[in-house]
Amino acid sequence: MNFNINKIITSNGHLSDEGISYCAEQLIEGNYEDLPEELLSHIEECHKCKKNIFAAYDNLSKPSGLVDTEDKTKAKFPVFRSNVFKIAAAIIILFGLFVLIQVSIKNSDNKLSGNQKPAEQFSDDTVNNTQQKTDVEDDIASSDILAEDEVNAERDLDEQKTYLTDHFTPSEKFEAFVNATFRDDNDFELVKPEKTQEFKINDNIEFKWKTNITEPLTLIFYNNSGKEIFRSSQISKTSYTLNQSFSPGLYYYKLETEENILFFGKALFKN
Ligand SMILES: [Zn+2]
Asked: pTM of the full predicted structure?
């Protein structure tokens, strides 16, 4: 879409339909902050435009094939223009590097002890075991096995890196919503879990909140690539215990009524 400010802002100062979908697209593509200043400042101040963009964003970011039947027009818009999500991304990347260094050190240790008993090293890796049995049968010199261990260790490290990249990279579109305030009337307060908490993959997560909202609530979890992986509407008025085990990774969750998003948070699951 060609950018033309006159098509995007109508004569009464609000965003046109074209402008609404343009802003929602930029939000999804992670370019929201690059929108012209006059647009950003209008959106920041205008509830009507905010909620329209949010509704468009929500429709556009739905997995294809799902039809949105919910009325999201009353959803409140998050505060986008903070650097919080950039800092969070940096922390997660640093954590990833730390894990890589640990794995790397562990692999070096394996290599050293590998001189004595190379065949027992990767007991849970069938490919390695098969390969190493063949090596033993062929009576290949231990220096060759060591060389192969290095290749295997390097490959394991690559797999670790790929896993971290795939499952722990923050989602730019969701980061914009994390811990944002969605309601003007402030009648919702999340008590548990703490913001951006870390969990073990088999932990039960206890959610607790204070609210005077009486409408039915839904809790939805997404993975870091935006795929919905869990949804429950069986939620009491003030608490919920999630006993669902997740594979290690970064997840985002949303607590909502049919008309409003009450809270948008994220959770790290580790082994
Ligand atoms: Zn407006």
From this structure: 0.49
